[in-house]
Amino acid sequence: MRLSLPSRSTLLHTFETLLLGVGGGVLFAWLQLPGGLISGAMITVAIAAFAGRPLGMPPLLTQTILVLLGISLGSLVSRQMLHDMSAYPLTITLLALATFCATLGSSLYLQRVHAWDRTSALLAGSPGALSQIVMLATEKNANVAGIAVVQTMRVIILTAGLPLLLALTGLSTPAPATTQPTVASPLELAAMVAAAVAAAWVLRLIKFPASWMFGAMLGSALLHGSGAIEGGLPPEVRAAALIGIGALIGTRFAKISARTVLRYVGAALGSFAVAIAISALFVAAIFTMTEVRFSDIVVAFAPGAMDAMLALALTLHIDPVFVGAHHLARFVFVSVATPGIVHLFDRPQIDADD
């Protein structure tokens, strides 16, 4: 079987994407903005994509970035983090309720204020699981363009805004010594990569969601949680993973025209505001009921994509196990519950302009 190589245009688009991502990430980091590497790369690439540049990344590079991100997240795991998992059942239950309420609130807003049909509004209001939502929207002949804009803008706003919000309110967590591991030895790095790729491949075989990132995180976490390895990836590699995931998020605008974005920006911002307001009520309730750090709860309950929120957990020194468990639970809840809910309210209305 002959191995197909990327075309020249694909390589040029990838190079341009990475160049923009590195430039934006380094600039934001130099300005000492919170989460600067990921948010800078994301914003720079998103602006260029919005302007019509054909940006993108090949699957192999995307998978490599996700594996590196997973390894970095797993290297932050400690025995204390694993011990704190006893609080998860309560918070995950409340997360499921918060997801349902936020989805319902966003859906009602889109129906009442922007006259969306119920199916499109429900799908646009479902946080996370973007690929599954778009596939379901296509199957149900819903407003795919509007749903994509609402979902993408939600991720962009959260990824850029959460670090600034936590910093401005004084709730961002300084990096303790335990979250700044030394660089692992070459043998340990090889063991981490091998465990990460093996775990990711197993999860991929059983069709586990976000298998590359969660598998790598699991393999790395097992080694670090057991004490077998204490060091992590070199800082330059971890920074490259953060810039890479930021650039990857930014490329989502490459498939959406400027006309489409402008058409649905009001619906996107309004539904986002409703979802955030509802999620904030649950965050406040959990903060008063548990001893979990407020910053951990905020990122865990933020209605954004798993990869983006876990990347923020890494760059903001937030408990990756807590955030990962909750966003995985949200992904499963949305993937399982949304199709059933949509079937109950399946009345799509096709927009003549789409």
Question: Helices, strands, pairings?
Answer:
Layout lengths: L7 H23 L5 H15 L8 H16 L4 H5 L4 H27 L3 H8 L4 H10 L4 H25 L17 H20 L5 H15 L9 H16 L7 H32 L4 H8 L4 H10 L4 H25 L10
Helix pairs in contact: 1-2, 1-11, 2-11, 3-9, 3-10, 3-11, 3-14, 5-6, 5-12, 5-15, 6-7, 6-8, 6-15, 7-8, 8-12, 9-10, 11-14, 12-13, 13-15, 14-15
- Structural class, by secondary structure, is mainly alpha
Shape descriptor:
globular
Radius of gyration (Å) = 20 Å
Number of beta strands: 0
CATH topology, what is it called? Answer: Na+/H+ antiporter like fold
Strand percentage lies at: under 5%
Fraction of residues in helices?
over 70%
User: What integer is the average pLDDT?
Assistant: 81
SSE ordering: HHHHHHHHHHHHHHH
Shape-level CATH architecture? Up-down Bundle
Total helix count?
Answer: 15
**Largest sheet properties:** none
Structural domain tally = 1
| Poorly predicted parts | 175-180, 347-354
CATH class, please? Answer: Mainly Alpha
N- to C-terminal separation? 41 Å
